[in-house]
Amino acid sequence: MKASRLEAVERILDNYLEMNNHRKTPERYTILKAIYSINGHFTLEELNDKLTTELGFPVARATLYNTINLFLELRLVTRHRFHGATKYEACYDNDSHCHQICTMCGKVTEVKSVEIKEAVENMHLKRFRKDGFTLYVYGVCSTCQTMITKRKKQEREKSKKVKTE
Fold first, then answer.
1. How far is C-alpha 143 from the chain's CA centre?
2. Which of 118, 67, 122, 117 is nearest to 95 (CA)?
């Protein structure tokens, strides 16, 4: 994790808390550090495990939910709903990117595409300032496709065997 990135998000949090007369609690800052040390997507359970196990800093579930909601409001974290699961991602100074989502197993893979990034940057939108984007591409991953092909082949062979008997 880049120190400058963490310092920047801590400054954003500091400014917000000061301007709104909220307390600067160690829980908020520890959760923020934990989020920005995770590479990629995470669930609240995974974040809670990291706080408890790796950092030795357990927090109440309500504190975790309230803090995540604050970070969503400040646009320090983004929420994704992948194949029935809610995942989060640190998003400050994060490149826009695409997600491949397998509709069979739920596997999510990040994809960087220069062509898509340029297309979005070149879009002219009325009365709207673009900050970034996330694109979801749904389909079937190669592992699941292989399983589907094998299953179909087995069914055909079984069908042929039944017909010959």
1. 22
2. 117
* Average pLDDT score over residue span 17-27: 95
Reported as type and span, the H/E element at residue 134 is: strand 134-139
Q: How many whole angstroms separate alpha carbon 48 and alpha carbon 65?
A: 10
pTM attached to this predicted model = 0.75
The stretch 112-133 carries a mean pLDDT of 87
**Which one-letter amino acid corresponds to residue 134?**
T
Among 93, 129, 79, 88, smallest CA distance to 12 is for 93
Burial of 76 (0-12, 13-18, 19+ CB in 10 A): buried
pLDDT score for 165: 64
Q: How far is CA 19 from CA 13, 16, 64, in A?
A: 10, 5, 22
